[in-house]
């Protein structure tokens, strides 16, 4: 078999997910759920959404996982920006602080630059207690779905 004929080996990964809770503040919607990725890792996933005209867009996704916390900007970006678990544990406190104090920078990192009327950054000053309340009320995972990933990528993630 030549290198061009070889295909990446895929494996199915079980994702256990809880019901989502959400709220809106300052022109953004914050949605969260608990997720367990097989027996590899898990924790809270927090998404930041906006509506622009008729189209909703996931701007940011924070995976506050026990072993390998990270975020995606924009949310659908497969590349991860790591959050140092040595310094920040699962990353939740870091995420709450960043969204409260540095939302503009994170939104710009996602490639979305809101106009002056789209986001009320002053209102986001009250975000941290609302996020804590949202996350604290999340139910445990109740549904399972399967996601196909490259075996090599999965092996690399298990070493983190």
Describe the structure.
This protein has 160 residues and is α+β, with helices and mostly antiparallel strands. The chain has one domain (12-140). The protein is built from five helices and eight strands; from the N terminus they run βββββββααααβα. Strands 1, 2, 3, 4, 5, 6, 7 and 8 form an eight-stranded antiparallel β-sheet that branches. Strand 5 and strand 6 form a beta hairpin. Helix 2 (92-101) packs antiparallel against helix 4. The longest helix has 10 residues, at 92-101. It is globular and about 45 Å long. Mean pLDDT is 87; it is low at 1-6.
How are the elements arranged and paired?
Layout: E1 10-17, E2 21-25, E3 28-37, E4 41-52, E5 55-65, E6 70-72, E7 81-82, H1 85-88, H2 92-101, H3 103-109, H4 127-136, E8 143-150, H5 151-158
Helix pairs in contact: 2-4
Quick description:
This protein is α+β, with helices and mostly antiparallel strands.
